[in-house]
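Practice set, problem 2.
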Amino acid sequence: MRRMIGFMCEGHLLTGTLDEAPGDIGLLIVSGGNEIRCGAHGGQAQLAAQVAALGHPVLRYDRRGIGDSEGSNSGFMDSRADIAAAIAAFRREAPALDRIIAFGNCDAASALALFHDGQLDGLILANPWVIEEEQQDDGEAADTPTKPSAAAIRARYWDRIKNPRSLIDLFTGKIDLKKLVGGLMKAAKKDQPTGLAIQIAAQFSQSDVPVHLLIAKRDTTAMAFMGAWNSDVFNAARGKENIRLSATDSTSHSFASDADKKLLLSKILEEIGSEGGT
């Protein structure tokens, strides 16, 4: 059974959707970006129904200023209170819960990594966001698009090099040699971990909560994360037994294809079990 719930977060009413089930292991889904709780094309609502049908209650919610929830949208970096309120509401509304596993994609994954505060029993973090937007002099985000990471540029050029058509375009002058050289120089650079990546690495090194990183290898956000993950900043995290990483050869940031949806469901079920209860 699916029902709407409401709960308070710092004086604002948040709206959530609970897919009820008898199991004592629940799934909390945190939406990324400014996405409402149903997810892109209803993907998170579909995922919740599938997990609940296997016996696990699932809670999705809109953070402050998003969808049906009150308040102002201050972005994922101001969502600690929203996550804590959702966890508390989940436990109230599903009192049989013994454990809660949380899933988040993109900046929701980063928010969970930073702000779970030891209140969760496991994290499934897909394509964590570690890219920091360009800032204007007044501190606001600039209107220009975020620059792709060197890892993403390398992947793009590697795909072009493997395509025989690119060689033909090069020899016939269709490819601007000056732009090509400039792009290759950018691709050769080593990405420097952002402040956000450093914060996530610090949280990983300090926490013993089980973390399953799920990476779509050809997604540009995931490429940026992997550039950081393979840097010295994450040395301590890479050596921890409670953190594991799975990579899939996909371009889909939100696991939109049928194959990606099946993979995502299977990885979630690995963490929470395929049957209700323990």
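Problem 2, part (b): a different protein.
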Amino acid sequence: MARDADGYPVTRTAAGVLRGAAGTRELAVLDERISGCRACPRLVAWREEVARVRRASFRDQEYWGRPVPGLGPADARIAVVGLAPAAHGGNRTGRVFTGDRSGDWIFAALWRAGLANQPTSVSKDDGLELTDVRVCAAVRCAPPANAPTPEERDTCSPWLARELALLPRLRVVVVLGGFGWTALWPVLGAAGYALPRPRPAFGHGVEVALTGPRGPVTLLGSYHVSQQNTFTGRLTEPMLDAVLTRATELASSAGTTPP
């Protein structure tokens, strides 16, 4: 696999994403391959333009300007799946949900749930550590207007599928928002999970129990931690805390299954 100037392996097509994801056996290698992906021309152009122009308040910072990999340990029993990085958040810092108001919400909630060692995430070197949770996104590049296309979602989906497959103790997936909910179902179907029909509708607090190749996994729906939801009160801290409390309860009661 060819590498770019910074040493990341380059993937340029949807077929390449599929091959690269399927051939990965370690999360660290997957993170590298995600970071070098260039399979969606519109997203590549947008993320790199944002990184070049920069917001005035971050003018003195070097933007990441790449796809953003997940964050958290391989032994996590809980995964949190968001939509995509923010143009001046993850696309700037290189870490998922880091450096924007959505990140302020999710990491503070993870800290309150005992899943993070601190309530803030501002940069890669701020000392944040997650316990028993992996945070990732359905689409890894910052999209224009926070709106990936269905084609971009589907092109990116093998990265998410492989990331979840590389979490052998996974028992709970917290899905932030309707976009992530829609993106996750084909991923789970391809991974061998028996999916209910009709597909359960997304909603805050919706809970769906699935059986898959490594045992039971529960999906939990939550409104996204976007400013549109948090500023208007559609999503409150107690609402988010309740979902994460439920996630930790389910993860603990499910026990562990050897990989």
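Answer key, part (b): Residues 237-254 form the longest helix (18 residues). Residues 14-254 form a domain with the Uracil-DNA Glycosylase, subunit E fold (CATH 3.40.470.10).
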